[in-house]
Design brief:
globular; alpha+beta; single chain; four-stranded antiparallel β-sheet; eight-stranded mixed β-sheet
Length: 344
């Protein structure tokens, strides 16, 4: 079975089934915004939402993660965590699935990160395809992430009174095969799916002036651009842009001692290249002193360095960095300001 169909009236029944199979996380409304949270009441799950405040990254790459315990006298370290519980991410947008794919290549690049990979092995991803353009901040169309491009176990598409489910893994297939109210899709339903995606093309338009290949080329000539000075003048170095990004994976390591000053716990904690001390080294040398250079570094990481190293863009187009920027810096406006370099 490659495609299956689920009546909307049975959605909550399926969510109850999934909740009994593993820890279930899904988007829900929080005032006028949205967040991924553990599902307690399936009626709270919201599938029509703009990107959540934080991406679901917080569940497979936690903000603060215990690595191991240790003692000083006698010196002893506990075994690192090697077991994680099964969990399901439900209703994940395609831009956030692209973020998971980026994290995969980063943490599989040697030396591999065992905590991330062990946790990822326990994760099931059920995506939902956006059919309405979320807001003015997103640039998913230009990044090519408005359409499913793999990286999920199941993908659901709203076609009216039902969902069509694309089955993309054995793990995903088990979650639909065992449920009697999910049926194999008919030819008529597949026609509805094609029609829905044709309608979608009328809604999603490129946000950047030029193609991605030209934008990539523009970064070869843009290192000393006045654009970075303009961005640096606005930036307040709050770090919001990196905190909410689905592909930022920088972290720091911290040891926290008990009151006896003998026992402690080692943690890893999210860090941000936008912080003043991030690029400082021994002796006080700072390789990126100004906010303009730190912002430039962030853009180069998303549109240049990641392509050179991993052959993929690390901007997924979710729009979170622009949406949460205290200074109103727009990623779309910044990239389009660099576009004339690409055209020339």
């Amino acid at each position: 079975m490659k495609y299956a169909s689920l009546k909307k009236t049975n959605l909550n029944d399926w969510l109850e089934y999934l909740k009994n199979k593993a820890k279930l996380y899904a988007p829900r409304k929080k005032e006028n915004l949205f967040v991924f949270r553990p599902v307690k009441d399936v009626a709270d799950v919201c599938l029509e939402y703009i990107p959540t405040i934080l991406p679901p990254k917080k569940y497979y790459f936690p903000q603060k993660e215990k690595l191991f315990k240790f003692s000083a006298q006698p010196f002893k370290t506990a075994k690192a965590i090697d077991k994680f519980e099964e969990f399901i991410l439900f209703g994940v947008h395609t831009c956030d699935i692209a973020g998971i794919q980026c994290m995969d290549v980063a943490f599989r690049d040697g030396p591999e990160d065992p905590n991330y990979l062990n946790r990822k092995d326990k994760m099931t991803i059920i995506g939902i395809e956006c059919l309405k353009y979320c807001d003015k901040y997103a640039n998913c169309t230009s990044m090519g992430n408005h359409l499913p491009r793999g990286g999920y176990d199941l993908m659901i598409v709203d076609v009216g009174n039902k969902f069509i489910i694309h089955i993309n893994s054995e793990k995903g297939e088990r979650l639909v095969k065992e449920v009697d109210f999910i049926k194999e899709s008919t030819e008529k339903e597949m026609v509805e799916l094609d029609r829905t995606r044709e309608e979608k093309k009328k809604v999603f338009k490129d946000e950047f002036y030029v193609p991605l290949s030209k934008i990539y080329e523009s970064f070869d000539e843009s290192f000393n651009s006045e654009v970075w000075k303009d961005v640096g003048k606005k930036c307040v170095a709050c770090g919001n842009c990196t905190t909410v990004c689905p592909t930022c994976y920088c972290f720091d390591v911290s040891d926290e001692m008990e009151l006896n000053l003998n026992d402690g716990v080692r943690y890893r904690i999210w860090n941000s290249c936008q912080m003043d001390d991030f690029a400082k080294v021994a002796g006080g040398e700072d390789f990126r002193k100004g906010r303009d250079s730190r912002q430039r570094h962030r853009y180069y990481r998303k549109f240049k360095y990641s392509v050179d190293k991993f052959n993929r863009y690390f901007c997924t187009g979710c729009g979170r960095c622009t949406r949460t920027c205290m200074a109103g810096i727009s990623l779309i406006d910044t990239i389009n300001a660099l576009a004339p370099v690409a055209v020339d």
